[in-house]
Amino acid sequence: MEKIDNIDDVLIRFNAFMIFEKGLSKNTVEGYDDDVAKLLRYAAATGKSVESVGLDDLHDFLAALHDVGISPRSQARIVSGIRAFFHYLKVEGYIDNNPARLLELPKIGRRLPDVLTTDEIDAIEAQCDTSTYDGCRNRAMIETAYSCGLRVSELVSLKISNLYIEEEYIIVEGKGQKQRMVPISASAIDAIKAWMERRGDKGIKNDDRDTLFLNRMGGKMSRVMVFYVIKDLCARCNIMKNISPHTLRHSFATHLLEGGANLRAIQQMLGHESITTTEIYVHIDRSFLREEILKYHPRNR
């Protein structure tokens, strides 16, 4: 068994393993780092080295998280990070047995996301003053996110070279740098074309010449900035729902399902590896489900 002399060096190699061997995104790896850091602080406080942590210690750690008010959903995410870390330690020979292998995820209920109606999305876009740099960009961002069902990280990283306007589709780089082809609506294309006419008004940084959406400094938009833009526009429309950039993605999938789109097609457009992730949208619109049952079930004919 190899001895851990410097835990920081191990964490650097763990990050590289997650990115290059497992193909995880930078955001996921950063989340795992935070999860492992919580465990390491707990272990240090109890006088344990990472090599000596056992299953009982991990159970005590989760109990401590519960005691300080960490939700079961957040605990489940932390367990995922810890499992990945101890798996890496086992693979690299730092430990003989993986104590996290038998660590169970806390039970969490399925939380249905808020969804915007088409009227609400239209109202949000109407708040964008397209005569200004910011307004023109914001309308294009919102219409593109909703039209294509993009994650916020995919939206801010969207490249001009991945826009195929004439063919009406875009190439999206998703989690783990996996690419997928997504159709884009005519309304989103029009909004992007209008933005492209204003895009160079504030100058463009050399590193971001291929980035579609830019901030006022001519650089790549941050995810946080997109969050604030959407929150501000929703506040102006008096929309009281719990809204984030991801709400546009949820709305995209829900509206497709309500319109009769195949669940597998929605899965491909969203970039979900598992159909079970996409199936959450089946639970959102009860009236739609009732209509489907009344229409297709033999007992209702």
SSE order, one letter for each helix or strand: HHHHHHHEEEHHHHHH
* Bulk shape: globular
Strand content: under 5%
Count of helices?
A: 13
Low-pLDDT segments: none
- Describe the sheet with the most strands: 3 strands, antiparallel
* Side-by-side strand order of the widest sheet: 1-2-3
Mean pLDDT: 85
Gyration radius from CA atoms, angstroms: 23 Å
- Residues in helix, %: 40-55%
Description:
There is one protein chain. It is built from 13 helices and 3 strands; from the N terminus they run αααααααβββαααααα. The protein has 301 residues and is mainly α. A 3-stranded antiparallel β-sheet has the order 1-2-3, with no helix packed on it. It is globular.
Q: Which labels suit this protein?
A:
single chain; 301 residues
Topology:
Elements: H1 7-21, H2 26-45, H3 55-67, H4 72-91, H5 118-126, H6 133-148, H7 152-156, E1 163-164, E2 169-173, E3 179-183, H8 186-198, H9 223-236, H10 245-258, H11 263-270, H12 275-278, H13 286-296
Antiparallel strand pairs: 1-2, 2-3
Helix pairs in contact: 1-2, 2-4, 6-8, 6-10
Write a brief structural summary.
The protein is mostly helical and 301 residues long.
